[in-house]
Amino acid sequence: MVKARRQAKILELVRTRVIETQEELAAALAAEGIPVTQATISRDIKELQLTKVPMPDGRYRYALPEEPGAAAGERWRRIFREAVLTIDHSGNLVVIKSLPGTAQGVAAAIDHAGWPEMIGTVAGDDTVIVVVKPADATGEVAERLKGLMR
Hints:
Blueprint: H1 2-16, H2 22-31, H3 38-47, E1 51-54, E2 60-63, H4 71-83, E3 84-90, E4 93-98, H5 103-113, E5 118-123, E6 127-132, H6 138-148
Antiparallel strand pairs: 1-2, 3-4, 4-6, 5-6
Helix pairs in contact: 4-5
């Protein structure tokens, strides 16, 4: 039970605070009445699949895997930002123009997002078509995708 309580507290701390190091995490846990060793912290970080993600100031903090700034998600966003040139939509389709040879990566990034309104992607060399359902959500999906370009 102690491990479950400790790991739940770690998740809470990582969600609510900027924790940059294992030492900071250990200190935060100790302040909550949960003393731990560095080895325990290290095991918990691995089991909880915490990752380090960059902050705007260049420092890194621990994050949960599903957080928007987490490692895999950040890689997909970076691919999207660097490759996408334009986004437009018509009917239930969003058309994305990208740099030559990057459409497959862009489509994979979109698929990774897992938005329920996007039912599939088709990628060529420099164009991705996103099929949206329901059709009246297409404009919103296009705007959300444009937001990933920033």
